[in-house]
Amino acid sequence: MPETLKRPQVFRFDQMAVQVKDKIDPAEAQVDRYVGLEHIAPESLKIRRWGDTSEVESSKIIFKTGDIIFGKRRAYQRKLAVADFDGICSAHAMVLRPKTDVVLEEFLPFFMQSDIFMERAVKISVGGLSPTINWRDLAKEEFALPPLNEQQRIAEALGAADSVAQKMEELSRALRSAFASRLEHYLVTAGDSVPSIPVADLLSEPPRNGLSPTTNADELGFMTVSISAVSNGRFDPTGNIKFAEAEHDKVAPFFVEEGDTFAVRGNGNRYITGKVGIAGRSYKGLFYPDLLIRLRFDEDRILRGFALAQWNLPSVHRRLISRAKSSNGIWKVNGQDVRAHSLLVPGLPEQRRLLGELGAIEEHQEECERRKTSAVNMKAAIMEQLRGRRGA
């Protein structure tokens, strides 16, 4: 990285890139890959998923290897990728090609991924439910760019950090798969030698739905959370806090305590419904909402960590959501569904042994996530050095 960025110049975006608007009927496209916005992962420049052109209708935009695919609809989702193959993409994306006399093709994607660009993109988006960027508005936006030689050095540093982030993501994904495979193998091989017991017989108290008084925007009353607090096997209120006024005696039975396990009672996404997460600590003055069901496992029978790992395993979770019912687009499970759900329950020593194996895999996976986060933060810090310069 250079110590200083000298003589930045200000350019309109249409001096930096050209928009590719060539469209084609998918049936006539001589390519087999279709990229929709659902195939682009935020914070990653690599396309890892795609659909088949035979499965889409209406005209789509043609892109070539090296083109930038930028989600112009809901730009706040930060969907941006560089194509490493030819294909067609959604009309909700812009296809852009760098003007290399102004900006290097290896630098522009990182620049567009930065807060400097994304904040501007969100600001100029128009529309209500699906805010969208118009090319004519983006084209006239001005940005300060360092000289090409500086861009080259910055791009090399960003590329190195991005490579680390991508490798850590791939390794993390492999470890998550290893975790699930190890547990799945145990459940299959345990067979009839390990009893399958209804959840109703594994709890120290009956399942209990939460409480949902009217929330307010004035941060008055007690804290509660949205159901997004349950994610990746954890109950974490960070970023999901709401406030509601209610009598202490009414909300006190619903305060979150360490070890409480919460199942998502309802969600528009069927595959989120029924997932569980454990509270790693108690939260003073925070109660859980009605769309969560509290489970308190009897640890003389089943360790909560063992119950959690098994419960969220896809093959086990599918059995629960087969009971889910849909109403007004929301899939729900109830206390009866949860009580009837069953888990394999080996002896406690066997549970501890298996949790030790799974825990070692999980520790490696968490370390990968930490390294990935560090690399992503490094990318942001490098780009932030451009902040405050004219036009940025």
Walk me through the structure.
This protein is α+β, with helices and mostly antiparallel strands and 392 residues long. The chain is 33% helix and 21% strand. The protein has 10 helices and 25 strands. It has helices at 13-16, 108-113, 115-124, 135-139, 148-190, 248-251, 304-311, 314-321, 335-340, 348-384; strands at residues 9-12, 17-20, 23-24, 33-35, 51-52, 60-63, 68-71, 80-82, 87-89, 93-98, 142-145, 196-198, 208-209, 215-216, 222-225, 230-231, 234-235, 241-244, 261-264, 266-267, 276-279, 292-295, 325-327, 330-332, 342-344. The strands form 7 sheets. It has a 6-stranded mixed sheet with strand order 13-22-19-21-17-16, covered by helices on one side. Strands 3-6-9-4-5 form a 5-stranded mixed sheet, with no helix packed on it. Strands 2-10-7-8 form a 4-stranded antiparallel sheet. α5 (148-190) runs antiparallel to α10. The radius of gyration is 25 Å and the shape is elongated. It starts with 8 loop residues before the first strand and ends in an 8-residue tail after the last helix. Residues 1-5 have low confidence and may be disordered.
Number of beta strands: 25
Number of helices: 10
General form:
elongated
The parts where pLDDT drops under 50 for at least 5 residues are 1-5
What is the percentage of strand-forming residues? 15-25%
Percent of residues in helices comes to 25-40%
Structural class, from helix and strand content? Answer: alpha+beta
What radius of gyration results from the CA coordinates?
25 Å
Mean pLDDT: 91
Q: Walk across the major sheet and give the strand order.
A: 13-22-19-21-17-16
First CA to last CA: what distance? 19 Å
Major sheet characteristics: 6 strands, mixed
